[in-house]
TrEMBL record:
This is DUF4138 domain-containing protein. Keywords: Signal. The lineage of its organism: Bacteria, Pseudomonadati, Bacteroidota, Flavobacteriia, Flavobacteriales. It comes from the Bacteria. InterPro entries: Conjug_transposon_TraN. Residues 1-19 form the signal peptide.
């Protein structure tokens, strides 16, 4: 997956060049101790790195002209940035322990082309454009990034028969909520996953109060396993449309075992849903 994304980014960058340019791409160095700021001539609409040891963050809710780059030790990769005016910028990114430059002001002249060029006869413009508009590509990159972060929303977990279900994080991005979930098998038997469902539930108030549970629509699921072997940990991400809850409601994560009875229901307070990271 990493190689295909990296190659796809490089292909798109070269495809959209308005003219042939044999000059090598500039290299931007970064590390995990400091933020390297990149200021662009137009607000950033999208930024993608080709490997998980590089993270490029920018404001996804409000258009801004700068993004921040960080890196962990590893092989060099690439950074592809698209501005709101369609300008495309491409750079090689590399880890370096000592940094000489922390701020880069990117001129428009460094753009390698535009997102919507004039295609030549015979070029498959539809397929190329779909690589940018296909939201699955964005989901996969952002979910992969979330699984590398150590950020947590709290200690939310439940254990049953050696199986531990945890909700590690809830992240808000582009009108959606990303649920980072962990399943840990501390038992001596493998755990075959039937399903993991996320629903909202009304809290019981009094003996006559009925309990209503409604499953939430899932826009995307990332890294969901079919089996968790003994002494193994699996982490995954569920993407749901943004929602909020009143004080009488909560979220329930229901883990169901295939051909087994080690089922878990993890209740999550509305305060975590209404205040995501």
């Amino acid at each position: 997956m990493k190689n295909s994304i990296l190659l796809g980014s490089l292909f798109l960058a070269s495809f959209f060049m308005e003219a042939q340019n044999t000059a090598p791409l500039d290299t931007i160095f970064a590390n995990d101790q400091k933020n390297v700021a990149l200021f662009f001539p137009h607000p950033i609409r999208q930024g993608i790195t080709g490997a998980d040891n590089f993270v490029f963050t920018y404001n996804r809710e409000k258009e801004q002209y700068f993004g921040l780059l960080q890196a962990k030790p590893g092989k060099a990769s690439n950074l592809l940035v698209i501005n709101t005016n369609g300008s495309i910028f491409s750079y090689i990114v590399s880890y370096r322990e000592q940094l000489e430059k922390l701020i880069h002001f990117v001129p428009q002249s460094e753009s390698i082309g535009f997102e919507q060029p004039k295609f030549t006869e015979g070029s498959d413009s539809t397929n190329v454009a779909n690589l940018f508009t296909d939201k699955t590509f964005y989901y996969e990159r952002f979910c992969s990034y979330l699984l590398t972060r150590k950020q947590k929303i709290g200690s939310i977990q439940k254990r049953k028969h050696g199986i531990v279900l945890s909700l590690e994080n809830i992240v808000f991005d582009k009108e959606e909520l990303y649920f980072v979930v962990k399943i840990e098998n501390k038992s001596s038997l493998d755990y075959d996953l039937n399903f993991l469902d996320i629903s909202t539930q009304t809290r019981k108030q009094g003996k006559k109060k009925s309990l209503q549970q409604i499953s939430q629509l899932t826009n995307f699921k990332y890294n969901v396993p079919t089996k968790v072997d003994e002494n193994q940990i699996k982490r995954m991400v569920y993407v749901l449309p943004k929602f909020s809850l009143s004080n009488d409601k909560m979220v329930v994560l229901e883990l169901n075992e295939k051909n087994g009875e080690r089922n878990i229901k993890l209740k999550v307070s509305n305060k975590y849903i209404n205040n995501p990271n």
